[in-house]
Write a structure and sequence with these properties.
By secondary structure, the chain is an alpha+beta fold. Among the domains are: 31-241 and 398-404, Cytochrome c-like domain (Cytochrome Bc1 Complex, Chain D, domain 2, Orthogonal Bundle), CATH 1.10.760; 408-540, Immunoglobulin-like (Sandwich). The protein has helices at 2-12, 31-41, 54-57, 154-164, 176-185, 197-202, 209-217, 224-236, 244-249, 258-268, 302-305, 337-345, 372-385, 389-393, 404-407; strands at 70-72, 85-87, 139-140, 147-149, 287-288, 314-315, 413-415, 428-430, 443-449, 454-460, 463-468, 471-475, 480-486, 497-502, 515-523, 531-533, 536-540. Strand 3 and strand 4 (147-149) form a beta hairpin. It starts with a helix and ends with a strand.
């Protein structure tokens, strides 16, 4: 009897499978564009520090979102505090020349996006993307102003935004011309390892990005619009439609467990989840205010449309592969499905201004309420029944390379101990930029030193640990190059000094495998020995 009931339910849901994917006719899917887009999506050289790719914040292991979670201070600028949100770490701020520049909120630490990274896995089905829908359907060539896609181009718009976003992939005042010119000479995937077979095959034999653009578009010219077309095409090949739910609605009555079937019934019944998370896509693609936070903290959709009726509204995300995520809601407030369910159990958030009327408490008695056993089945269905096993396993087409940011620590490969300067401030060395051969954006920075101080940057072939006049030399002076300089920041102010040595790594293959050693010395009359030093850093060329 239970088996027959499963079959009947499967038949009733047959029209609620993942709907056909919309593809704009102006950007049809081709194999050449798809593989180019895959390379660009995982290419950290798309950023201005060679360690941020689209895939850095959108990982399959996190259900298309970010495995990382960092604090963005709210309006009060204080952390921790109730108005904090949780987003994705981006790059350390740099000026128009790509030299380090302390940020008002994050200093010389990685900037953090003010919203959590949404899943990109089902973005192709949404007519407008980002939490506030600011990536709309009409795609305009940023170079020519021509309308290339009248409708259905939200993915193309979204693909370009991070490339110029200062808290994500860009230095200040970055242009598409700067980003595209870098790709002309960059060796594809130079900073990544463990490339999937299709990516490795595509760039075998010294294939360049101009070669790949020629194969995809007919000429080798690299433009922002072509980057957008390629990345969007790749994203449209990511179709997570092999979940247990999909197999179930296709006619396999055992694809969902009995508990998960009950969870589906709760989902479409007393829990009322289906009113916003419509089965199939598991989103109605609308924007709603959940009462999660005061509108003053983030007005959401209103910031895009300018309409008062949209205040505090955010995109209803798809629940597909939500079981892999570790961050939920636009502000990243929750870290588990259980927390999210508890939020909805109480009828959403406490902020009533423009709160969606569909939100009602679910903690009453049946049939309107959702008791604990039903809640467990509901969560089981969302966590397991809506997870595509290929996404969870990182299997094709949901495979990816290993990124440099996963191999290089946030501040680089540091060793030894620094010595403090004026006010007890300890200068820090910023050595996180990959030293890949041909990297035109390579730099080693310094922060938290005495403002306006004279410096010596030391780069040598051997490490050391030599105590000299009260400070430790961490680079062998006999093999070292000494480069003098002067720090930025208010003169004499403890901790205000910052700077960097920015120099391209020559495109010389013999450098690959070489390790050099770096350290900054700061002339600092505010301390007894007259100098402060950073820790040492290994500069590993590859």
């Amino acid at each position: 009897m239970r088996f027959a009931a499963f079959a009947c339910l499967a038949a009733s849901l047959s029209a609620q499978a993942l709907p056909p994917q919309p593809v704009p006719p102006q950007n049809p899917i081709t194999p050449e564009k798809a593989i180019l887009g895959k390379l660009l999506f995982w290419e950290e050289q798309m950023s201005s520090n060679n360690r941020m790719a689209c895939g850095t914040c959108h990982s399959f292991a996190a259900g298309g979102g970010d495995q990382r979670r960092a604090v963005f201070p709210g309006l009060d600028g204080v952390t921790p505090s109730p108005d904090d949100s949780f987003g994705s770490p981006g790059i350390v701020r740099s000026d128009a020349n790509n030299d380090y520049l302390p940020d008002a909120e994050f200093g010389l630490q990685a900037q953090v996006t003010r919203r959590a990274s949404p899943s990109m896995l089902t973005a192709a089905w949404f007519p407008e993307v980002f939490w506030d829908g600011r990536a709309r359907g009409q795609f305009v060539d940023p170079d020519t102003g021509a309308v290339l896609i009248p409708t259905g181009g939200a993915l193309e718009n979204q693909a370009l935004a991070p490339i110029l976003a200062g808290d994500e992939m860009a230095h200040d005042a970055r242009t598409f011309a700067g980003a595209t010119s870098k790709l002309v000479t960059a060796r594809p995937m130079a900073v990544a390892t463990n490339l999937p077979p299709d990516m490795a095959s595509a760039i075998a034999g010294g294939t360049t990005y101009p070669d790949l653009f020629n194969a995809a578009f007919g000429t080798p010219t690299i433009t922002a619009a072509r980057i957008a077309f390629a990345i969007a095409t790749y994203q449209r090949t990511l179709v997570p439609n092999q979940t247990p739910y999909d197999l179930f609605v296709a006619g396999n009555p055992t694809a969902l467990t009995p508990a998960q079937v009950n969870g589906l019934n709760v989902f479409t019944g007393p829990a009322r989840c289906n009113l916003c998370h419509t089965p199939g896509l598991f989103s109605d693609t609308q924007f709603r205010n959940l009462g999660l936070r005061p509108i003053a903290q983030d007005n959401g959709r209103q910031g895009t449309t300018g309409l008062l009726v949209d205040r505090g509204k955010f995109k209803v995300p798809s629940l597909r592969n939500a079981g892999l995520r570790g961050t939920f809601m636009h502000n990243g407030q929750f870290t588990t499905i259980a927390q999210v369910f508890g939020f909805y159990l109480g009828g959403g958030g406490p902020n009533l201004d423009n709160k969606d009327p569909l939100l009602v408490p679910l903690n009453g008695p049946p049939p309107q309420g959702v008791p604990p056993p039903a809640a467990a089945d509901l969560q089981n269905f969302i966590i397991n029944g809506l997870t595509d096993p290929r996404v969870a396993a990182g299997a094709f087409p949901f495979d990816r390379p290993t990124l440099a940011s996963e191999r290089i620590p946030p501040q680089g490969f540091l060793y030894g101990l620094p010595s403090s300067g004026t006010g007890g401030r300890v200068p820090s060395i910023l050595a996180q930029v990959p030293a890949n051969v041909g990297n035109v954006d390579f730099k080693v920075g310094i922060g938290n030193a005495r403002g306006g101080a004279a410096t010596i940057f030391v780069l040598g072939l051997q490490p050391a640990s030599i105590l000299y006049s009260g400070v430790t030399l961490l680079v062998d002076p006999g093999s070292a190059l000494l480069i003098p300089g002067v720090l930025g920041g208010a003169s004499g102010v403890p901790g205000a000094g910052f700077g960097n040595l920015r120099v391209g790594v020559p495109d010389l293959p013999f450098l690959s495998g070489l390790t050099m050693y770096a350290q900054w010395f700061v002339v600092d009359p505010g301390v007894v020995n007259g100098a402060a030093t950073t820790a040492g850093a290994e500069v590993r060329f590859f």
